[in-house]
Amino acid sequence: MDSVRLLRSFSGANRRLTVVVVAAGALRGLLFPLFTLATGALVASLQTDGSVVWPAVAVAVTFLVARLLDPVLEEAGQALWRQVDEALSQRLMRAVLASPGLTAVESPAVRDSLVQAQGDLTDLTPGQAAYHLGRVVTLVVQGVGSLVIVAVYQWWVAALLAVGYLAANRVYRQHWLHVTLVLMGRTDRLRRAYYLRGLAIEPESAKETRIFGLTDWLVDGYRQRWMREMGDIWQTRNEGWVASVVVIAALAAAEGLAVGLVAVGAADGRVPLGRAVAVAGAVLGAAVLGTYTEGHWMLGECARAITRIEAVEAETTAGVQPGGTTATHALPRRAIRFEGVRFAYPAATRPVFDCLDLEIEAGRSLAIVGENGAGKTTLVKLLCRLYDPDAGRITIDGVDLRGIDAESWHTRVAAVFQDHVQFELSAYDNVAYGALDNRADADAVRAAADLAGALDIVDRLPRGWDTPLSREFSEGTQLSGGEWQRLALARALFAVRSGAGVLVLDEPTAALDVRGEAEVYERFLELTRGVTTVVISHRFSTVRRADRIVVVDQGRVVEDGSHEELVAAGGHYAAMYWLQANRFSEGPEHGA
pTM for the full model? Predict the structure, then answer.
């Protein structure tokens, strides 16, 4: 069954190369029994003074063809290796991206499967099995062909050897499977060790690892964690040596019996010398059936990698479902409503929301405020349909959001997340990714950047819009946090200009300096005009410009109104507002 799945996967990557590798491997394996027979025929000819021309030619041809097939197997195997890796990588990417939500992507089980499927634990990619495919086929064909020669001599000797080889191969396979399962069972802990390794070598963490003196600690921590897990794996590997010795001894006895019978038969004249040479060579050739090589293990690992990809594909069908209704460009026309929404993250001890009710009027701006952990960002994730509620519902103009196709709804939403992505691509792509269908509209990209105050940033770049935004690329550059945030805002605005009807701003000015923040405040009404806007911010200079403000506390809306109404009410909002206002009104002697 695994063999069929492997061949199907390899053929899917490149059918022609797969045929070449299998055919070359089979021919290479068949040449050994033919060489053995030719050698026996040559010896027989020498013994009987017969013609040695054809036996000698057969020996030379089989030897020469075998040598010529070796580079064919090498080159075809190398090429298939790369293409299988690429095909499986694309399949894994499609599996991860299949779900429009975040449930599967953030699942520890899925993260473990991804690491295992890519060969990150063993540093051996699944595609390397394709490189070994031809060699394994060679061993199988050589072994079976050699056993046929032995069977012609004495069928029971061939049967005895076959049973021994199958038993030996099973013992070796089970041992290495056990080692692999022990390794895979430590995936989560090894991922933590590899995380420390990443902190030591990746540029994103380089500043703090040096400033806080973490360099030696990271190396020691990685080494200790890695050694602790690998020690158990090495112990498991060593546990099989007794069984290996027994198996080798049993096989040696069976092979010794076979060769001994041939030798005795040749010595007393019952077996012609040429046949004896051929049978003895066949016994040696069949011995490969009792071995478990790296190629066998790699093919098994590739089959397991395919199983893990299938597990990821199955996992990503959970969580957010696609939905059947396409979101039209008119949505939302009236309102977005959260109706009795309950939601908890997987494995969380308590829900983030429990019976949350909230109405967001279409075409107006709503600011959401609250203390850290109140659920503001989670509310936005539910609105964007990156998660679905556990209970209750979210409706768009009265239609349950679960029934709306998630991907089409995503095209209706533009967002600046607090942890927005910094694409290490060109400046143009960083903005145009907001609406791929409209990516070619350079004027709209430029207009969105101008509205976000990012145009001056782009104009200062060495290659303008084509500048890679990373120092790790030639002619690339690195932006400041505030400059990245302006590009993220421009990306969202480009999506709005391309048809998105809901704008989400999660701490949109957190990384901006005072001047940049003031510029965004001044343009707030222009940025949000006619768009259903949800703003999350701790800065009340932004919040107060919204048409309406709600305060979220312990998973529920506890206050709702305009800035003036909430300040006058003297509740949570007023307390937070005056606390921040007093900080900015203090004199220099208080702020020093």
Answer: 0.75
